[in-house]
């Protein structure tokens, strides 16, 4: 059902969004944003890495419906209608989590993407799929652009299952968009950070902050000169919401991320400084399960395509983003779990 709504003083149309992985870090922020825009939101998440608490604000809305289910088990045929929007974020994510069981990672990510694409075809819905900067793999360039050749370092073990599943997901999205004339968009997300990001699955920023707040050793893997760029979740969410309803992005791939990068060593030092921590910063070898990581040298997006087509660019600096996470983690009293 589409009805007129009044949102932030502007007239808009209330539309129906299905957000897979909507109880996760990025997903829950997407759900909140869509509800703020006055839309009706169906969240499907099996809570494998997401959490019900992330949906505290969303659950106060009468337009939010939560289904604690695997995407494969959800009753799509009972709910989905032509013209609905699907934002597909559900995936096994997190460097430690995905490496723990490569076959699970690969099956989970591929099966849900194939399933959602089929539903999208059947009901002629729009779909936005979140891929990853990891598909660029190992290269010597300073920027990664959508048309670059991709370069997988290895195809076995570790996080390759994650990268390959996302790459194949991209391929399927483009084939479905072309063959069935569907409105499908792929976003290659670079590191996104923000206060709901879990520190349980090896994400670098929450891990460093947690150690700094506890005055524990901050382990920087490799030489620490690998570069990363960090985009605040509000900026990533703005791109997701904007492109999920755009018909001009059909079958297209867009980078989404912050185009200012820093070395991982600089990141550790910055976090140590702003937390007034006495932590030692120590260069350490990569853990066994993450040996491939050492070769991903530079990760910085070229965002000229999304800037040109949609006027999107990040508004929050990586320093502001980190400051916000530090404050939020202090409030959560991480110290008491030491
Ligand atoms: N955070 C980043 O920096 C980043 C970077 C690149 C790409 N991405 C992509 O963005 C998306 C969201 O990532 P995130 O950082 O919010 O991770 P997250 O782990 O917080 O979110 C993923 C969510 O999917 C759910 N999920 C997994 N498999 C499911 C299944 N079969 N059925 C139902 N729910 C399932 C999990 O419970 C979780 O809530 C992922 O697709 C990820 O690949 C994220």
TrEMBL record:
UniProt keyword annotation of Glycosyltransferase present: no
Listed InterPro entries: Epimerase_deHydtase (IPR001509), NAD(P)-bd_dom_sf (IPR036291), UXS-like (IPR044516)
SUPFAM superfamilies per the UniProt record, alphabetical: NAD(P)-binding Rossmann-fold domains
Cofactor(s) the protein needs: NAD(+)
Swiss-Prot/TrEMBL keywords: Decarboxylase, Lyase, NAD
Highest taxon above the source species: Bacteria
NAD-dependent epimerase/dehydratase domain location: 18-257
PANTHER family associated with the record: UDP-GLUCURONIC ACID DECARBOXYLASE 1, UDP-GLUCURONIC ACID DECARBOXYLASE-RELATED
Name of this chain's protein: GDP-mannose 4,6-dehydratase
Organism in which the protein naturally occurs: Hymenobacter negativus
Taxonomic placement: Bacteria, Pseudomonadati, Bacteroidota, Cytophagia, Cytophagales
């Amino acid at each position: 059902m589409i009805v007129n709504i009044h949102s932030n003083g502007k007239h808009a149309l209330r539309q129906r969004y299905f957000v897979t992985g909507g109880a996760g870090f990025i997903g829950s922020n997407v759900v909140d944003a869509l509800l703020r825009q006055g839309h009706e939101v169906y969240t499907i998440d099996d809570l494998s890495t997401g959490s019900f608490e992330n949906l505290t604000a969303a659950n106060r809305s009468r337009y939010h419906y939560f289904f604690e289910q695997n995407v494969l088990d959800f009753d799509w045929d009972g709910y989905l209608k032509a013209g609905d929007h699907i934002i597909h974020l559900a995936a096994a994510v997190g460097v430690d989590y995905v490496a723990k069981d490569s076959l699970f990672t690969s099956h989970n990510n591929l099966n849900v993407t194939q399933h959602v694409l089929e539903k999208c075809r059947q009901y002629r819905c729009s779909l936005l799929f979140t891929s990853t900067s990891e598909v660029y793999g190992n290269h010597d360039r300073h920027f990664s652009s959508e048309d670059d050749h991709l370069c997988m370092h290895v195809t076995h073990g570790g996080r390759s299952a994650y990268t390959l599943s996302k790459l194949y997901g991209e391929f399927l999205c483009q084939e479905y968009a072309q063959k069935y004339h569907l409105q499908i968009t792929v976003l290659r997300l670079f590191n996104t950070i923000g206060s709901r990001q879990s520190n349980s699955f090896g994400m670098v920023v929450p891990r460093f902050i947690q150690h700094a707040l506890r005055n524990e050793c901050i382990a920087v893997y490799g030489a620490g000169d690998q570069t990363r760029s960090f985009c605040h979740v509000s900026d990533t969410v703005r791109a997701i919401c904007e492109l999920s309803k755009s018909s001009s992005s059909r079958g297209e791939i867009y980078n989404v991320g912050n185009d200012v990068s820093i070395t991982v060593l600089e990141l550790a030092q910055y976090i140590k400084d702003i937390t007034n921590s006495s932590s030692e910063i120590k260069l350490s070898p990569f853990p066994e399960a993450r040996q491939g990581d050492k070769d991903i040298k530079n990760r910085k997006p070229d965002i000229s395509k999304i800037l040109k087509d949609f006027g999107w660019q990040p508004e929050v600096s990586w320093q502001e983003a980190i400051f916000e996470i530090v404050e939020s983690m202090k409030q959560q009293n991480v110290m008491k779990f030491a």
